[in-house]
Every structure is written in C-alpha cells, then in structure tokens.
Amino acid sequence: TTPFSPSAITASGRGWRSDFVSSDGPLEVRVSRDGYAKLLLVEGVGDSIPRVVMTAPARDSVLRRAEGVIPLDARLHDDLGLVRASFEVVISSGEGERFTMRSLQVGARMLNGATDATMRASMDLRALALSPGDVVHVRAIARDAHPAANREAGTSETRSFRVARPSEYDSIAVEPAPPPEVDKSLLSQRML
Question: Which of 24, 30, 103, 125 counts the most CB atoms within 10 A of its CB?
Fold first, then answer.
C-alpha cells in the first residue's frame, strides 16, 4: 500500500470525486461512507517522454556556401501534455583536435498542455556566420507537464549540415577507357 494525500472530496452528479497523484506502482485506495466500504486498486502507468519527429529538413546535407534559409518543422506528441518546445542548433567549428562549439534555440514556444502539436521555424544560414568546414546540428526538443524538475526531454533525430571547404571541389576528371578488344571475348566466356 502506498500512502497518498487526496485533494478535497467533491460531489459530482450522484457520485463524488477526489484527485491524487499516483506513482508508477500499484496503489490501494479505501473509500467508505455510511458503513459501506469499497477497495480500489489503482495500477499506475509511468509517464512517457514526449515523442518528437522532425519532418523538415528530411535529411543531412553538404552545402557549397553558407547562405539561404532552411525551414524547420517537427511533430510533437505526449500522453500527459506538452509544455514547451524549441529547435536546438549546435554549431561546431575547427578541425583536427581544436574545436569550438556554440548553441542557440530557434522557434521556442509554450504549448499549454496540448497533447499534439506542430512546431515550425526557419534557420537563416547567413545569420549564423558560418565558415567553410563548420557543421550545424539541428534537433527538435519538447518538454511535458511531468512535475519532476530533472525530467528528460523528448528529442528528435539530429540533422547535420556541413559547409564544404573549397579544397573539396578540386578534382581531376578522368574518362574511363573501354576494355581492349582481346579482353572482351574472355570476359563474355567467363560470364557464360
């Protein structure tokens, strides 16, 4: 038996009502009135973290130049109710063993307990002041109405955008030559 502190008991139609918070384990509740008693067994179900699916951008990408606006879109769901959500942007710069990181929030909004929501924002690449070789990581984050302060947030998959270095586009074009005539017959006999 787990002890609990019910709120005030109120009349509701021909019955009564009392609210309380249960744990994720079983809870025994005894109700009595005018010599009659009832035993209720409440089996709590643990609250799940918010489910977050990023629908745009759909995939990772390599950018030739850090310019343009990338639309961000995510679908959110929670069984208890969503409180707030945002897109988290993390930018890593540098190469080898020397990296710097910076992060920012985009499109933060309050959701007031909705169980389903859609979040939209946009990310201006020019405003991020990116350099060649920088990598931008974007994910959607949502928090629910769970009362614990250290409650884990729901997150989507991370999408990454890398700004290409100019040296990546240096290449030598080589046209493949057809096989010599002698090898053609040998190759076809092997295939048979």
Answer: 125
Class of residue 49 by CB neighbours under 10 A (exposed 0-12, middle 13-18, buried 19+): middle
Burial of 60 (0-12, 13-18, 19+ CB in 10 A): middle
How far is 48 from 74, CA to CA, in rounded Å?
A: 18
Distance CA 17, CA 127 (A): 54
Q: Which tokens in the block code for residue 167? A: 């040296």
Q: Report the distance separating Cα 98 and Cα 12, nearest Å.
A: 65
Count of residues making up the chain: 192
The C-alpha R_g of the chain, in whole angstroms, comes to 29
Element (H, E) at 187: helix 181-191
Cα gap 184→169, rounded to integer Å: 35
pLDDT (average), residues 12-21: 72
* Mean pLDDT, all residues of the chain: 83
Report yes or no: 68 and 48 within 8 Å, Cβ to Cβ.
no
- Per-range mean pLDDT, top range of 1-15, 35-49, 50-64: 50-64
88 neighbors 103 (Cβ within 8 angstroms): yes
